Amino acid sequence: MTGRLLVTPHAHPAWPHTHAVFHLSDGRQLRFADQRRFGRLWLRQTDEIDTFTGIARLGPEPFDPAFDAAHLEALLRRRRRAIKSCLLDQSLVAGIGNIYADEILFAARLHPEQPAASLSRAQIRRLAALIPATLAKAVDDNRVTPEAFLQGGGTEYRNTPLLRIYGHEGDPCPRCHSALRRLTVGGRSSCHCPKCQRPQSENRR
Fold it and tell me: Which of 59, 171, 184, 201, by CA, is between 20 and 30 Å from 6?
């Protein structure tokens, strides 16, 4: 949830809470800083089997060609958990965080608490298309030069004004102008529109 990996000139001042520095062959440094100390580093030999980082337990990334509507339907078909919790489950889909789970569900007009197994096939197809599309837009919105990223210490969140729903509790919905509401799903804060994202029937087809 926190931490920065930054490639810097050798003489660039170090940020507070820099815990590891790797010296690169071109004279620059790769630095890892983490104020909250949630991050971890592993040293693995080239031919060593990775049984410890947890990467093998991650699901496909949203831009993986294997991630499509059929794959998503197979994942969600029997899961009674809220769809928001499923999107945050890294063993199902890797790389979706709390911010963009809200953005994705708003784009798909899905209530965060709707049971995943209750989604219709059409809803799943729409969700499967909107997951990579929403994240691709976020990548474009956050595009920045290496120099500007380094100058900002790797902590620039220039996209915040571009988010449609996350962090906008009480603001008018950009689609219907109803007041956006916040609720807690699986211990995570979630913002949604009570009109555009009404809970759906559990009839899947």
Answer: 59
